[in-house]
Request: fold
Amino acid sequence: MNSKGVVVIEAAQLNQYADISAVEDKPIIRYQKVSKSFGDLKVLRDIDLDIAPGEVVAVIGSSGSGKTTLARMLMTLEQPTSGVIMVDGEPLWHKEVNGELVPADEKHIRRVRSKIGMVFQQFNLFPHMTILRNVTEAPIHVLGISRAEAKEKAIAMLNKVGLGNKLDVFPAQLSGGQQQRVAIARALVMRPKVMLCDEVTSALDPELVGEVLEVLKEIAAEGETTMLLITHEMGFARDVADRIIFIDKGRIVEQGPPRAILGNPRNPRTCEFLSRFRQQWISKN
Amino acid sequence: MWDWEYAFSIMPQLLEALQITIIATILGFLLACILGLLLAFARRSKFKPLSLVTGGVVEFVRSTPLLAQLYFIFYVLPQCGITLSPLSAGVIGLGLHYSTYLSEVYRAGIDAVPRGQWEAATALNLSRTRTWVSIILPQAIPPVVPVMGNYFIGMFKDTPLLSAITLVEVLQAAKIIGSRTFQYIEPITIVGLMFLVLSYVSSLGIRRLEARLNRW
Ligand SMILES: Nc1ncnc2c1ncn2[C@@H]1O[C@H](COP(=O)(O)OP(=O)(O)O)[C@@H](O)[C@H]1O
Ligand SMILES: [Mg+2]
Reply:
């Protein structure tokens, strides 16, 4: 451990992993023995996870199991307690210095972070900016493109999510479903290689869930963006995901193709979660 | 009792002195706004010594009288080779004193911006400066404009203290006129009315500004 409490790992150890993956598709995301604690509370334990470029991964699990934390570490909103997260072959939170991984500086983190985008449960649109400005702000100030070009790209993206006619309104004037679609456009216009979606429909009225999931399905179908979708919408997970991961008490306890996980779960915890989930779903509908 | 002719005759002198009062208030407040923001940033700094020292300075300035600070700036600093005109010393004194209050106001405004706004800014990879300028301050400041406005009016009403460092602001001018003619009632009453009118106009202005800023 170094002074900041981050485990320093020999780069050689990392290269070992890299060699194995070179045979197959190189993963765009790799969690290596990643753990996260808040004080004494261990939220994630030794997570190992590879995600291939273009893969759509759905993460399911009960509330408090650590799903959000898993995504937030990749968005650099939460620092792992130990372990390494690799993005496109580069460590996210670390930098290699003299063959050792040391905590990275802000500059390194910003560069690697530019490959990741995120959509939040509570949308987190900028309430004081018009829809158009919500979507152009980052392209102008982060990518450094001209206002005219940013506007063009933003309009194209807003058209894609069906909101090309709402450029000059403020977020508060939109429905939750529309706000969330703006948030998706805002993230996508930055062309992230990986999109994280954390229960993006949980804050929505039931009748607005569909329009948001449709947009995500479309993006998933294009196959350009790697997606990590945390969701309670099992039908949606089954339709869009290449793989479903079930997390329980901070561990990945089962993963596989949607049909296997949802139709024929092996782990007793998964069975229990899914049956509890079905009951809730039946009683709700 | 009340002599209208006399009242009109002293108006030009009083209005001239009122200009000094207004200039001191506006410059002092501008300084307080800028310094207050810097103090708020320093207070939030992750570099602990800076935030602790700033906290101490803010506490010290707030808990000592403005008058004492004015004396210090005007009468003590010259001994260290820093000599200031009464107006400059007054503006600096008012600005410094009120910046400590404004820093707390900014802090409250900044703390009220939801964490999700910071996180969205991070997810979009906005730089720290850009996050402050485009995302945080535009949401932090409009809600605290009314409180800032109260401090503006408070500072305006504190300007007579500047007479203690030989600045002839409007109340001091009234006193001088009164002592010359032994008729105090007109000058002092007029100055009172001037304060009343300007405070009222300011509060109207602040309310309009507030309405404009809160349109979303
Ligand atoms: N910033 C935090 N400080 C303390 N505890 C936290 C924090 N964030 C999350 N937790 C705790 O970590 C656990 C996992 O949270 P989370 O990742 O949000 O789970 P999920 O998204 O699966 O519901 C929960 O017990 C939660 O209370
Ligand atoms: Mg969650």
